[in-house]
Amino acid sequence: MTIESAPVLVEARGVHKAYGSNLVVRGIDMTVRTGEVMCLLGPSGSGKSTFLRCINHLEKIDAGTISVAGELVGYRRQGDRLHELRDAEIASRRSDIGMVFQSFNLFPHMTVLENLVEAPIRVRRESPTSARARARELLDAVGLAEKADAYPRSLSGGQQQRVAIARALAMRPKLMLFDEPTSALDPELVGEVLDVMRGLADDGMTMIVVTHEIGFAREVADTVTFMDEGVVVESGPPTQVLRAPQHERTRSFLAKVL
Ligand code: ADP
Ligand code: MG
């Protein structure tokens, strides 16, 4: 099945978000299909992180709609009326979405394994036995089986970020959001994290990846979306957007990062 015919997983229509008088997201339309890898590029301050945070219920949008897996972010339908979600409902919806940030954000006082089982046990009410078994599988998948009992501070940045990815996957998300996951890493550690992400893409995970790693976008993305000043400037397959960009703003951005 090609991506174009896969079911829609994320749909954004006319999304606006302001901080005070600073209009940061100014009418974003975006469709991400199940199994699609979308790389989101754009200059610093163009609203990429804000938009990801809106998808993940971390920010409330001012206008427009976002839906994930057919459910509106922030709202519940009842008949033909919309009700704002309560905190418990938001927590339950958010557990379908994994997010990995530039800073690894592991719990420093917990071992690697404890980091992975905490949310599945507390939020998803998994049994400790099955959560631990799943955590060990995931650590194996990211090449860190032997680090289960280590504390985050004893790991390299690349290892910590691989744990952060495994921790997000432990919740069995339908969607993974990555916000510049390799930007805080020493250059020699970037590859091991991108390799894990590439494996995840190969396994069919739906991913939105904010990144400046153009090589990764070229090789792994189904779709490259270029944002500037809170809008989508252009979007399409990497061969089109990276090799033959239609807009001057995309061309000048690519000239700086390539
Ligand atoms: P990007 O990720 O593309 O670099 P961001 O979404 O982080 O862009 O930021 C877009 C704009 O929104 C910037 O001008 C930034 O200063 C502003 N901004 C981001 N987060 C906040 C916040 N929590 N409060 C106020 N302004 C913010
Ligand atoms: Mg950002």
From TrEMBL:
EC identifiers of the protein: 7.4.2.1
GO MF term list: ATP binding; ATP hydrolysis activity; ATPase-coupled polar amino acid-transporter activity
Statement: the UniProt record of this protein carries the keyword Magnesium: no
Enzyme class: translocase
InterPro entries found in the cross-reference section: AAA+_ATPase, ABC_ATPase_HisP-typ, ABC_transporter-like_ATP-bd, ABC_transporter-like_CS, MetN_ABC_transporter-like, P-loop_NTPase
Top-level taxon of the source organism: Bacteria
Family in the record: Belongs to the ABC transporter superfamily.
Protein name per UniProt: ABC-type polar-amino-acid transporter
Species for this entry: Labedella endophytica
